[in-house]
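**Backbone shape codes:**
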Amino acid sequence: MSRLTPVIAALCASALLCAAPARAETVWVRAGHLVDPEAGKVWPARLIRVDDGRVTAVTPDGPVPAGARVIDWSAYTVLPGLIDMHVHLPDLDQSENVAEPLLHSAMESAFVGARHARATLMAGFTTVHNCGNFRAYADVELRNAINRGDVIGPRISTVGAYVTIPGGGGEVTGFAPDVTVPADMRAGVVVDAADTTRKVNALFQHGVDSIKLIATGAVLAQGTEPGQQELSDAEMRAAVEVARGRGSWVTAHAHGASGIKAAINAGVKAIEHASLIDDEGIALAKAKGVWLDMDIYDGDFIAEYGRAHRWPADMLRKNDDTTEAQRIGFRKAVKAGVKLSFGTDAGVYPHGLNARQFKYMVRYGMTPMQAIQAATTVSADLLGWSKDVGALSPGHYADMIAVSGDPLADITVLERVDHVVKGGVEVK
């Protein structure tokens, strides 16, 4: 038998290491201060013990065993990894060209998604709800690639595709009438309740975590109006019924007041945007325990950047019509005690700037702690992942960030994340 060459020997050794079960590793994290969103408090100097990627103990700072692996964040304020409940990772950034999605292949979208995922994680968002993409199942494949360790990124909850009417707010619109849109961009297009049942079942069969409905028109889709209901009540109920049968849930893009109430009455768990919500809709969300996921930063970005880059006039007009109304609704919802998660619609603006929304949430009625809770415990509860993410008590994944300064005194420090740990591994 011939001897193995050094290269082949090295490859064999590597394969054996990869095949061997991972050894449990203990890591200690020293936190100068620890923001505890479960208790709504900030604790002085804490020592966080991590075993095999999960928190096993949180105690006052003290000695660790000799030779222990220590991440020394004693000069920083430490928080649980942040959660963004509304991102679009595997899509191109919004631009002035409404047909932009048609200019890029599915393969390119995958690589773009990997880049966006990395930027999001580096910004301190260790978990996201990917709230739709034009290429069906691109988020499912990105989630799987991250979970396999192929690329770096946050934990992802997926929806696979938009469930929308033909030509509705979840379609690529604004191009010439003789252009054929690829089939994978129309996987969630439905024409009636029976079709909705079929399409939503197909989404789950392809591995999605939850469902995203486009209940009303959209600000950034030409030919649709935010105040107009698009999906019928029966179509929305059909989607909710399928999701419940599979132990899952549904969120609805809904700007208009009537569409919001129709979606809530159909049984959705959350409303995205809620821009034109009225007092009756706020009361209904409160009574039914429905989350509002309101992207109140976006309006300023669209108004400034969109005008500078000549975005279509109807998009800018719809943005003007909804921005201030959404912020008034947000303030009312805070006062009413409605559950408000943290969702930014990242992709409208560049990924990685997600934390810019915090100061808007504080400006429009939240305390800094409430804003942090929205991006941790409240969003984790909406995802159904409270046992795993959104906090740093024992049992949770060791997902955490470190920032210089006190976010309760200046919430904008969360826009400048110094360090990130995901699953006990320091990634930044």
Observations:
- The radius of gyration is 22 Å.
